[in-house]
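Design job #97: recover the sequence.
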């Protein structure tokens, strides 16, 4: 699968993602998850000055509008046809016979969307490396067999923080690592694609 095909797949179809434990877990289409994040109680839910929930998640709405505009513009430039529906545009790109230039451009464009949606829908989820704890050697603990290791690498703003600010803890033995012991974190993070 090319990166464009893979991005489109994640954006418009149910798919599976790595669960960080060496297995896979089902995931809704990213555009559906973005739509869900518009609801005020999801996706970080912005609050007004008075503390009341805003009617929509403004960040999610802005991202959805950006994606729709960028998709429409790219599609008009490429085909000359105006389609005002992101889903339909992506379906068209998926089956179109694209030039190398366009397929490269659209792959980059859709990668940005995938990354932005993923940041928005999972702002502060810790990452669970599929590695044994460097201190106690366990990978799972408890009756639920939860992963021992949690790496906290996303700030409260939903952005990836500087590696020096990452922390890792083992929920089984209680060991903790901070930026001072980046070696252990880096080793545990190596199982994560792209890092
Ligand atoms: Zn441990």
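Job complete. Output follows.
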């Amino acid at each position: 699968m090319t990166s464009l095909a893979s991005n489109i797949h994640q954006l418009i179809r149910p798919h599976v993602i790595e669960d960080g434990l060496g297995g896979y877990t089902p995931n809704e289409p990213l555009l559906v998850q973005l739509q869900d994040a518009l609801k005020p109680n999801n996706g970080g839910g912005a609050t007004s000055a008075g503390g009341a929930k805003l009617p929509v998640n403004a960040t999610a709405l802005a991202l959805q509008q950006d994606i729709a505009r960028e998709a429409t513009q790219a599609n008009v430039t490429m085909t000359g046809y105006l389609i005002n529906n992101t889903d339909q545009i992506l379906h068209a790109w998926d089956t179109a016979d694209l030039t190398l230039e366009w397929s490269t451009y659209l792959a980059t464009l859709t990668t940005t969307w995938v990354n932005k949606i993923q940041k928005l829908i999972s702002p502060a989820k810790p990452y669970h490396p599929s590695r044994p704890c460097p201190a106690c050697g366990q990978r799972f603990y408890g009756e639920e067999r939860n992963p021992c290791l949690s790496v906290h690498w996303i700030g409260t703003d939903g952005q990836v923080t500087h590696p020096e600010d990452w922390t890792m803890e083992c929920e089984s033995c209680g060991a903790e690592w901070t930026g001072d012991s980046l070696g252990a974190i880096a080793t545990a993070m190596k199982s994560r694609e792209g890092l």
